[in-house]
Amino acid sequence: MGSGSRSTDPKGLIAMSTPASDRTAVTDAPILDILAERWSTRIFDAASTIDEEALASALEAARWAPTAANTQPWRVIVARRGSEEHAKVLGTLAGFNSAWAGDAALLVVFVAETTRDGQPMTWALYDTGQAAAHFTVQAHADGLSTHQMGGFDRDAISAAFDLSADFTPISVMAVGELGDIRTAPEELQQRENAPRERRPIADTLLINA
After folding, report:
1. Domain assignment present for 209
2. How far apart are alpha carbons 89 and 156 in whole angstroms?
3. Where do the coiled-coil regions begin and end (predicted)?
C-alpha cells in the first residue's frame, strides 16, 4: 500500500484520501503489518466497483477460518451497490450507519447457524466472528477498506432474505475502496481523524500466571 500525501486544513483535520498505512496502530509489541494497518473507515469511494479478485480472496480467507469440529457455521450475504439486495441491507442499518455505508461497493452480512438439527451450535457466534475477521484481514491485505457494524435490524435482515430460525445475522460489513476525506461531511472527517486507541494489555488480562 502506498503512503500517500497529506496536508492539514485550517481546522487541523487531515485533508487527503487517507490510506490505511497512515492510520497504522502504535503497538506495545510487534504485530504483523497488516494487523497494525487495518482500521475501520466510514469514508468509501461511491463511484468505484468491487475488485472481484480481492473479494474472492477475502471470501476464501473466511472459508479457511478455524472452526469447532469443522462445523463451519457461518453464512455470508454479499450485496453489491446498485442491487436490490444492497438496498435491502442498507434499509436495515441504524440511522448514522445508513448515512455513510451506502457508498461502499459491498454490504456483506455475516450470518451464524446457531442451531442445527434442533441442537444449539455452541461455538457458532465465535466461529462466525473468526470468519469475519479473516475476511477483513485478507481484504485489507488486498487494498480494500472495511467497516463492521452491529447497528442494524436483525429481524429485518432475516425477513428480507427469508432466513430460517436456525440462522442469526451477526454483523454487516461495508467493503470497498477508500474514499476522499475532503468530500466527507465534517462529522465523518472528525471521526476519521480520531486517535486510534485500545486499552492496555494489562487491563485485558484477567490472569497472566
Report:
1. no
2. 9
3. none
